[in-house]
Amino acid sequence: MNGAALVLGILLAAGVVVVVALPFLREPQVADDRLDAPTADEERRLTLREERDRALRALRELEFDHRTGKITDEDYRRDLGPLRRAAAGALKRIDDAEPPQE
Amino acid sequence: MADLGRAALAVTLLLCVYALVVGSYAAFSNRRRLATSARNALLCAFGSTLLAAGILASALIRHDFSFVYVAQHTNRTLSTAYSLSAFWGGQEGSLLLWLLVLTGYGALAVVVNRRLLRDLVAWVVPVLAGIATFFAVVLVAVASPFGSQTTPVDGAGLTPSLQNPYMVAHPPMLYLGYVGLSIPFAFAAGAMLSGKTDERWIVATRRWTLAAWMFLGLGQLIGSHWAYVEVGWGGYYAWDPVENAALMPWLAATAFLHSVMVQERKGMLKVWNMVLVALAFELSIFGTFLTRSGIVQSIHSFAQSSIGGWFLGFVVISSLFAVGLILWRLPLLKARTKLESALSREATFLYNNLLLVALCLTILWGVLFPIVTQLFRGETRTIGRPYYDFFLRGFGLPLLLLMGIGPLIAWRRTSWRALLRALAWPIGVAIVAGIALVAAGAGSSKPGLIAYTFSAFVLATIAVELIRGTRVTGSLFVLISRNRRRYGGYVVHAAVVLAAIGIAGSSAFGHTVERRLALGQSMKLDGYTLTNRGVRVTSKANVVETRAILAVTGRWNGTMESGSNQYLNPPEPSQEVAIKTDWWRAQDLYVIADDLNVKTQVIYTKVLVKPLVNLLWIGGVVFLFGSLIALWPDAREQRRLVTRLAPARA
Amino acid sequence: MPTRSPARLIIALSVAAILAVFLVYTALAGDSTPQLTPSQLPGHAGKVSAVGAVVGPLVGDSHTAAGLRFGLKNITGSSSVIPVVYHGDKPPPLFTVGRDVVVSGSYANGKVTGTDILTKCPSKYQASKPTA
User: What's the domain count of chain C?
Assistant: First the structure.
């Protein structure tokens, strides 16, 4: 291998070592080295939000399907109540879990 | 420079092993800095692979024949563009391309998702690194693109039939597809390893899967188109094992794209989705194993090499890994809700999945049959075209019908009354179309007639959906942009219908005639008269072209030239067919002239009329368009996702 | 009203239906063709796919009644040369003496009568010899 390629190779190898060791170079001492996983609290709030989004989406789709004629009026009336209650319940659970900001 | 290339690949291997081992340990023992270090190693692996690829590409462009690979696949007269395309023209180079795309995709996927799914990504890194390690090992130890030699005078050159824009695009497009399936697989494995088996991994990888599926589909269409215009037997798909190798993962991925929608809304089919994504990934690796090992006879059969054993081993190990993971996490994969009705959108996705997977497994059985019979009966037996055609119709026609009915059914349940009301217009259209088609003579082929009628039905349902939706939102543009996935999907369905019409037309309603023609003699087919006007030989720089000149009269007036080329460097022949597309009549006139006698001017010609075949290629363009609509980033959806997933830090 | 989820029933019926179609097909029309090398041919009769290397000379024309005549021998190892008579489309341009091919047709009286030739594409992943 010629000289230039060798130098380039060594520089790149050094660069790789630096990048791989970077987390330890940046924070040689650290209080909390645990993975940034969501806490139990965050996890619960996340699940509630997902539940709310699913309920709202189901309501939107019910609405749209009714307006485009895929669902009859009776089916719409029958399904609207439970879905609305599910969405309201999800919203309430979120409010209970995180009090609104002042 | 070859040394630097070898070193770069060795560095890639080391980095991948580091990311695999250290990454697994970091995820297992919950160590943030170590996990970040492993992720950085994966990013650097992309960098060193990019360097190796750059070295090979530069050697190809410079025609540096001290590289064995360059000498084997290019020569001095080869243009720059084709020299570069030789990168993926051979075993070693194509493996390097695979690794480049894999590390590139992997780096991007991990970086994009680093904040949203931190605990999951910590496991995704070692899984991706594991896959990359396999390819790196093969490139370093078994099939290196950086072998050196004393520089010969000239290289061997690239086969003329590969010097074609379609053949340049075909492998990279397929690889973007195959390799792309590794990403959802890695995230699925990461979800199971981290215990986070809810829908987040699906939402995060949704666009990756769609993009990979799109590239895989386009790659196959490009290959089919090349076969049609270049190879020139008059067809575009031969059910060859290597062709099937790309179709099978595509079918599995199609099933997966549909069934994830059920899991996202209903929390059902969790185990099924894990199985599907693993199946799609394993089939993509198995596909490349079939292509490279020479284990089954195929027109694409490459040299039987030991590399097949490596790929088979990797498929077995990764399959065991996936099955083990799923069995271990079965308790976490319980459904959140149940299927409420056999007439619901969840159920139609289930039927669609069953048909797609049945077709996929049927093709797999046909491909494996020679290997299985050899193992168990000591005799290799092959299954022919009729088998594939039968099941393509048996599963494909119901799938076509389902594409029309499914979108008209609501989630949870739909009453028969609502469904029949929604279906009224499309059924009417289909009946009218059917009658018109029979009157036009399409009754000559029952499967063809059924395919046409079902296609009319599906197109009508799509039109009805668009019209009804536009009435609600006021504008078609608003309708589509509010729900890109759904309406992009409908456009893709329309593309599939176009392709189905094209396939049905060209196979069920085509005609063929072959004849030996002396000078001045004519033959007739479907309103065209072709007359032999002689044989002409033209010598050019690198090629001697022999052409039969045919004067065409009747439905079209003009001249067609068909015959063969004999290339000088490398010395190889190729078939050159003549195709005249009659857009008005929506058919191709396809002429294959072989057996050209220059002395006696006698030719043997096979002429085919292929109705509607161009709908297949047009369908490909519509497919691309529909996929792009579905892929289009949605700012509102993104914001919602970010506020949902980004934690409220105290 | 809570009823048993129809999912299991749907899946079971669908799988059964698919298997039924499959079994009916293979029972009625499941014709598979044995794939044999020239040394394995003697003793077989009927439909066959012969895998081998082409032995010259190539005589005749596939479009005539007499057909295109050539020989086929084992790709690896030694074997006797089996005569082949081929009728049909002119073989693809890559077909030549020494190429590995698969001839589909039937075997009888020590001869293969072929109706289809598949020529293996030698280009990808196996380089032709570079000029010195």
Answer: 1
